[in-house]
Design brief:
- It is a single chain.
- With 177 residues, this protein is mostly helical.
- It has one domain: AhpD-like (Up-down Bundle), CATH 1.20.1290.10.
- It is built from 9 helices and no strands.
- Helix 3 packs parallel to helix 6, helix 3 crosses helix 8 and helix 4 crosses helix 9.
- The two termini are 17 Å apart.
Length: 177
Amino acid sequence: MPFMKKLPPKANVREIFGMKPELRRSQGEMGRIIMRGDSALTPAERETIAAYVSHINRCDYCYGGHSAVARNLGADPVIFENICDDVDTLKIHDRLKPIMRFAKVLTLDPRAISQADADAVYAAGWDEQALHDAILVICRFNFMNRLTLGHGLDPDPENFEKRGSSMGYNSERPDPA
């Protein structure tokens, strides 16, 4: 149940942004660019990063929706069956693991991020633009997790697949994270 009486019991991100309508368009456009714009990271990889950050933050609302989106975009469902904080045991390809380690550090202890963390991403074959794109996803979902948790959105597991299949990224309608 949301913490604010003006929000409906099954509120979503659209309704939160509706409290400040001038944010609605810009947040939708930003989400579209970050999650679906040109990148060496596929949309499924970006959604997997988003789900992992949301898992680390214990944001079931965003984790449930974005893990469903990732699966719908072709991410292996096994990734999400036993997701855990330990990157080494995640069922993802080795090339993505340094990005997930980077995501974990940037999420949990941002001041601890180092050149060695970036170098591990580069050593896995990613370039600076790919790391930049990953950082944008990580930052967006730290923001979105705090937005949804701060407003008390109900994760509603029965709705994850529906949200996952309907999530869009356009400037008129921000994604329902």
